[in-house]
Amino acid sequence: MGFFTKDAPVPAAGGALKPLSKDRIKHALEQAGWSYNVDSDGDIGGGWEYGSFFFFVNGDNDELLCVRGFWRGVLGEAEYTQALEAVNEWNRDKLWPKMYVARDDTGAVRINAELNVDYEHGLTDEQLSQHLLCVVNTSMSGFERMNELFPEAWEKAKPTE
Description:
- There is one protein chain.
- This protein is of the alpha+beta class.
- It has a domain at 44-154: Yope Regulator, Chain: A.
- The protein has four helices and six strands, in the order H-E-E-E-E-H-E-E-H-H.
- It has a six-stranded antiparallel β-sheet.
- A hairpin with a 5-residue loop joins strand 1 (37-38) and strand 2.
């Protein structure tokens, strides 16, 4: 029963497990060629075509990676139910990131994406880079879907070139 046997040699580990840190996140973003800013609270954030992202380190021992993405579009109350249905469909069909609808401080309807990962035992540089790449790219796919469903909101929000 070859399914459970290893016919090929196991490759060497991609690096030692190290604690999660904001410096490691910044380094991974730089390695990917992505621009970012650090705000006055020390939060790391950056903008992409369809949305912006913040990269947080949380938990009692800074072991939790939290990436939150914010779609650029802004919806009105009349679109709330359609937005809920859209993110529910996404969450049903996709493993991650979680998408959700929330109201901002002005009461506008916003669509967000979020991924949380517990790295209590550390992670390699390669794992961190892969998670950041995956969460941004899959969130962008979700945001692209929102652009299709809400073209008027996207037209108003999309960056000018």
